[in-house]
Design brief:
Layout: E1 20-21, H1 46-60, H2 75-80, H3 91-100, E2 103-104, E3 127-128, E4 136-138, H4 143-156, E5 159-166, E6 176-177, E7 185-199, E8 202-208, E9 220-224, E10 238-240, E11 259-260, E12 266-267, E13 272-273, E14 279-280, E15 289-291, E16 296-298, E17 303-304, E18 312-322, E19 325-336
Parallel strand pairs: 6-9
Antiparallel strand pairs: 1-7, 2-3, 4-10, 5-7, 7-8, 8-9, 11-12, 13-14, 15-16, 17-18, 18-19
């Protein structure tokens, strides 16, 4: 067994900023989907979720506007191929598995809360792997280790940290967390580290949890920084991996809501066809037009009916003033088709 080397002090001329949040660094661009909080449920798959979030965020940082890079890889893909399954697993080996067993996107392999056979997924998603030899542990406890973790966050993006879970973490709702004196040890946990800051003189880390968006600060939490609270700094520091980056396809290549695959071909949803999914096959009757990425028909004024018929409507027969009061009118109209008007209109 060879112990991990101690963190080396960063160069004297490099100082981390006072605050940093990976969620905010792409101002004016598409937000990274990686920061959508997920829920692991009753399965002990925190290592898979935190690894998926950190990998996805690092991939997104290369080009948030790209539909090929701004994705969420499936925690289920990582869980299925891990050793521990729902009883817990090792973050470093999980990240390393992306070299030989690339993951697919979340929509292709949705989370089930249980381990399935490795590789059981759809066949139409892009796959995302890691560069060989790129898994690293950065920083650790102490001032030098904390600074190294901060600099890695700025340069490369989020990573995974481990911590001990105390009983009062479950009831956390906001603020900078430190366990109370009466809190008891529950177990170990892995989360994604996304930033840091300071609140009234209290330094903190910002972490993305996998307990759902209704926990904590919309699924995130702040925990004291620099004091190795719950072992967040001494437990292997920051675990990171470098996504394997392949050339991007030309911009605006796939129309509507279609997906650009890694070979630059377009995966067309139902109703669309053509090389760029530019042809809409939805035929709308009654003068209707296909809208919302070719998913439904919009009927002209005075016409309604279920998609795609637009087969019912009304016809205005006459319009005349009533008596001596010009503010009152009489309207005569008739309905056609099997449908009825969608709303009752008064005149």
């Amino acid at each position: 067994h060879v112990p991990r080397p101690q963190p080396r002090p960063p160069p004297a001329d490099i100082t981390p900023p006072a605050a940093f949040d990976a969620r905010d660094i792409y101002e004016g661009q598409a937000p990274c989907k990686a920061f959508q909080v997920l829920d692991q449920g009753g399965c002990g798959a925190c290592y898979a979720f935190s690894s998926a979030v950190s990998f996805s965020a690092r991939l997104c940082s290369t080009d948030p506007s790209s539909s090929v890079r701004n994705v969420v890889i499936s925690p289920q893909s990582l869980l299925d191929c891990a050793q521990g399954g729902c009883t817990g697993g090792d973050v470093l080996s999980t990240l390393a598995s992306l070299v030989d067993k690339p993951a697919v996107e979340l929509w292709c392999d949705p989370y089930t809360g249980a381990q399935k056979a490795c590789g059981s997924k759809c066949d139409t998603s892009n796959t995302y792997g890691a560069e060989p030899g790129s898994v690293r542990q950065v920083g650790g406890a102490g001032e030098a280790g904390v600074v190294q973790m901060q600099l890695e966050l700025v340069r490369g993006g989020p990573g995974v940290v481990g911590l001990t879970v105390m009983s009062d973490l479950f009831s956390y709702s906001s603020g900078v967390y430190s366990p109370s004196a009466s809190a008891t040890l529950v177990g170990r946990h892995a989360v994604s580290l996304v930033g840091w800051g300071e609140d009234n003189g209290v330094a903190y880390w910002i972490c993305q949890n996998s307990w759902g968006a209704d926990w904590g600060e919309r699924g995130f939490f702040r925990i004291a920084r620099g004091a190795d609270t719950c072992g967040i700094e001494s437990n292997k520091g920051l675990a990171v991996v470098k996504p394997l980056i392949e050339p991007l396809c030309p911009a605006a290549d796939c129309a509507y809501a279609s997906t650009t695959l890694r070979d630059c071909s377009c995966q067309c949803p139902a109703g669309l066809s053509g090389p760029q999914c530019q042809d809409c096959s939805l035929s709308c009757g009654g003068g209707g037009a296909a809208v919302d990425s070719c998913t439904r028909c919009e009927c002209p004024m005075g016409v309604w009916g279920g998609d795609p018929e637009c087969n019912s409507g009304f016809q205005l027969s006459s319009l005349a003033s009533c008596g001596q009061d010009p503010s009152r009118i009489t309207v005569q109209y008739s309905f056609s088709g099997a449908g009825r008007p969608p709303t009752q209109t008064s005149f």
